[in-house]
Each structure stands twice: as C-alpha cells, then as structure tokens.
Input
Amino acid sequence: MRVIVCENYEEVSKEAAKIVASQLILKPDSVLGLATGSTPVGMYNILAEKNKAGEIDFKDVKSFNLDEYYPMAADHDQSYRYFMNENLFNHINIDIENTHVLNGLAENPEKECDDFEKMIDAAGGIDLQVLGIGQNGHIGFNEPDDFLYANTHLTDLTDNTIQANSRFFDKIEDVPTKALTMGIASILKSKRIIILASGENKRDAVTELIEGEISTKNPATMLKVHKDVIVICDKAAYSK
Ligand code: F6R
Output
C-alpha cells in the first residue's frame, strides 16, 4: 500500500484527479469505480475542469458506483444517482448510458446486485476504483461486522453511518437504514484502488487502515491484501 500525505483537502483532490486523469490517458476506455460522499467532490470538480480543457476524455469511459441507498428513488436529491449526475456526469462528456448506479427501488434487490456484478465483469472489470472511508472504516457500505460479504448485496447501515450521513437530510429519521453496496471482493477485484481521506474525523480509520491488522471490524483493512492500493490523505487525517 502506498500512502500519499497531502497538506490539505485541495491537494488530496489534485493528487487523486492526477491519478484518474493518467488512467484515462493511458486507457481511454477505462472502467471506473466511483464513490459518493463529500470527499471525492473536489476531485470530481478538477476532473470536470480537465475534461472541459480537453486534457481528458470520458467519451469511451464506463463507470460503476459503489452503492446506493435502499429504498431510494434515482431522482431523489439524496440518491447517489442524483449526486453523481450533479457532481460529475452532467459536467463531463461521458455517455450517461455508460454510467451505472444500483437501482435503489429494485423490486428484487438480490437480482439487481447479481446483474450489477455481471455488468462489471462484462465490461472487463474495474480498472481504477475510487473509495472514501467511513469514520468506522467502512468502504462502500461494507460496515464493521463479524463477517463481510464478498459480492454486491443489500445491507443494513450502522447507527454510526446513519448519524454521519444525517448531515445531508432534514432529520435523522429520513436517512435510509439500508443500502445496496458492492462487496469486499467486488472492490478487491479492481485492478487499482485509490482511497481518499480528509479531516481529523477520519484519523482513527486511516490509522487502522495503515497500521492495523486486517479485521472485519475495520473493512478498509481488507485493502491490505490488494497489490495496488494508494491511500491519499491530508495531514489532518494522517497525523495520529
Ligand atoms: C460513498 C461510500 C462511502 C463513503 C464514506 C465516506 O459512495 O461508499 O463509503 O465513501 O462514507 O464519506 P465522506 O466522503 O462523505 O466522508
């Protein structure tokens, strides 16, 4: 695992955008795995600027998002589909048909998850997966537990995650208690992974990720078995 420690959030965003941009330059039809949340927003803004400036092209890119709340309509302003459209897809030249976000209203969530895995495989697998990290060490919505799921699945969110995500909703009761998420193996199948972290509230999770033992109680530590993971964090998230 390589660790890049940046001065601040802006630098984290720039470093991450540099890696995504290089990926697209080397392989214009890359398959990207994408995350929502506050952390990648700066990176998405830079990628949109680079696209506008003609430095990178998303014409042949495919994307798969890590997760979606369940139940959640795609056009709800807190859905991850809505988030991705607003923060990235509407600002770049990606073909929206090539962007895949799990359907938060799927009648048969199990089938939705199986189909999603198959679509990733059919696309040739994820070349570069972008991750954030939860304060409790979750990646995607793989929450700390006694065991973790390998494949994309429906899961319960922990109180910690519901609390952390309530900042985006009017009241905590509005935060969905379930989500569809890629599993640990779905994430580990990616050829390269970058995991972004910023701010003091991520310090414990980042310390565990870098120094801790592999444990289902900190799902991010599972990344230690992957041969190409880059942690990009700022000093506030690293200094412990
Ligand atoms: C989002 C996701 C989550 C977030 C994590 C950090 O698609 O899968 O694991 O990456 O909750 O969220 P932020 O960046 O808001 O701190």
Notes: The longest strand covers residues 192-197. The mean pLDDT is 97.
